[in-house]
């Protein structure tokens, strides 16, 4: 199945950008009232970049398949082609936390911290670390709850591993202890990274 057979992409409505590509708005061809967000992994001409994107896409799909939580954005379909990769998920018309961070009330900040803590606790029970918590990766649903998204940098931590020293993510939001050459506990949550407390 081709993504263009199932969805009409709104090319001029980019919802966000990341290191893998961009997220665009799309409509279901069967039901025009149903909106989706489609993460398009950029097609890179360099073979090394293509392999890296393929790896990130495959890893994100595998991790998403293991997650089923109301505060984690779920995917409906993931598609892989010779020229591109795409992951389709529910569209959140309230946008992401990055867009509203300056207007967040104290009550909302407490709710969002609780929501994301719940999602992370669930992930950590499955020994999955998100690795890129930041306002752009926190969506706001219709109940004004924070929903975690973007799992291409997530890692599955092997059993019995207590210290981890391989991290990715956005430098401005990395916890200071990540730079410890002896590693740090990958399941500790740094609330400074939420940037809203």
From TrEMBL:
Instruction: Please give the superkingdom of this protein's source.
Output: Eukaryota
Gene behind the chain: LOC129928940
Q: Which PANTHER family match?
A: SERINE/THREONINE-PROTEIN KINASE
Give the organism, scientific name: Biomphalaria glabrata
**Entries under InterPro entries matching the protein:** Kinase-like_dom_sf, Prot_kinase_dom, Ser/Thr_kinase_AS
Annotated GO molecular function terms are: ATP binding; protein kinase activity
Q: Where is the Protein kinase domain?
A: 9-197
Instruction: From the Swiss-Prot or TrEMBL record, give the protein name.
Output: Aurora kinase-like
